[in-house]
Specification:
Length: 81
């Protein structure tokens, strides 16, 4: 049988002043799991490797510039001898 709404949230009467609400059995595990999920995702997503194509291309371009620089300095030192 359905109870008649009393006008309170979740049909609960408010607690008397100075008293706190008693937690239900599911609340603590739910809050702990939610907090740990947020922490694990926050750390894990920030620590993932950068595998974007832009990063790869940037690193390749730096390698090529370094190789050209080494090649130019090697050929310049070979001509001066």
């Amino acid at each position: 049988m359905r109870s008649i709404p009393k006008g309170y949230l979740f049909n609960r009467t408010p607690t008397p002043p100075g008293q706190s609400r008693k937690w239900e059995d599911w609340e603590l595990p739910c809050y702990i799991t939610s907090f740990l999920t947020i922490v694990i995702l926050g750390v894990g997503l920030n620590a993932k490797p950068d595998l974007t194509i832009e990063t790869w291309a940037h690193n390749k371009a730096l390698e090529r510039l370094e190789m050209e620089k080494i090649g130019v300095s090697a050929s310049a030192s070979g001509e001066s001898e």
